[in-house]
Design goal:
Blueprint (H helix, E strand, L loop, with lengths): L1 E2 L6 E2 H7 L6 H9 L3 E3 L2 E2 L6 E2 L4 E5 L5 E5 L1
Parallel strand pairs: 1-7
Antiparallel strand pairs: 2-5, 3-4, 3-6, 6-7
Helix pairs in contact: 1-2
Length: 71
C-alpha cells in the first residue's frame, strides 16, 4: 500500500485528489458522495470529513477492486 504525506488537518475530498485517486476536486467529491470511498474500511460520504495520521483511504474502482492509500 502506498503512503502519501499531507499537511494535517486535511479533508477527505482534498486528500482523494492529492493522492491521485481522482484527477479533479469535482471528481473526488462525486466519488465520495457516491459512496465509492472508504476511510479505515467504512464508507464515508462527507467530503469534509477530517482525516487523521495513519488513516487508510480507499477508492472502489469501476472494474472492481480498489486503490488504497495510507495518510
Amino acid at each position: 500500500m502506498e503512503s502519501v504525506e499531507a499537511r494535517l488537518p486535511i479533508r477527505l475530498g482534498q486528500f482523494v485528489k492529492l493522492a491521485s485517486l481522482a484527477s479533479t476536486g469535482a471528481e473526488a467529491g462525486e466519488a465520495v458522495r457516491a459512496g465509492d470511498v472508504t476511510v479505515n474500511g467504512r464508507v464515508e460520504t462527507r467530503r469534509g470529513h477530517r482525516l487523521a495520521d495513519g488513516d487508510v483511504v480507499a477508492l472502489r474502482l469501476p472494474g472492481g477492486g480498489e486503490a488504497a492509500v495510507r495518510l
